[in-house]
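ok here's AraC family transcriptional regulator, seq below lol
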Amino acid sequence: MIETPRIIQTVAQLTAIIPVTVPRNQIRTVMGPGVSELMAMVASQGIAPAGPWFTHHLRIDPQVFEFEISVPVTAPVPALGRVKPGLWPAMKVVRTVYQGPYEGMGPAWGEFDAWIEAQGLKTGQDFWEVYVAGPESGSDPKLWRTEFSRRLLD
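and the structure came out like this:
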């Protein structure tokens, strides 16, 4: 279900973000419009995306998701409306790639977290999902690819 996880060092990356706090059952209704809003604002500033969009999940409980809809950018973005400048910090992470429909991401995260625990690794609570290939890249969800990252703690 997931590729063999690996430990890597990331480099700092400027981002544009929209902070979101929503009930768990509304995440699908806010994601698409949020991504469209973010990309439109970045484009309106003449700034290019530096890679695929992603989410940075800050807090998840059974009822509420708190996360940032994000895109890496080639230049700093001004705060404008809901869009804020951000930074994906340089850090050591454990990373894997899940290939398949978004509905399978929950079990894939379970597999990833079990692997992390079996290795005795300690990670932060927050995590990142990079949507490398999704509906915009083709209609077959079996080919969609999502990169999962968790920050490693010392």
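fwiw The chain has one domain: 6-152. kinda neat tbh
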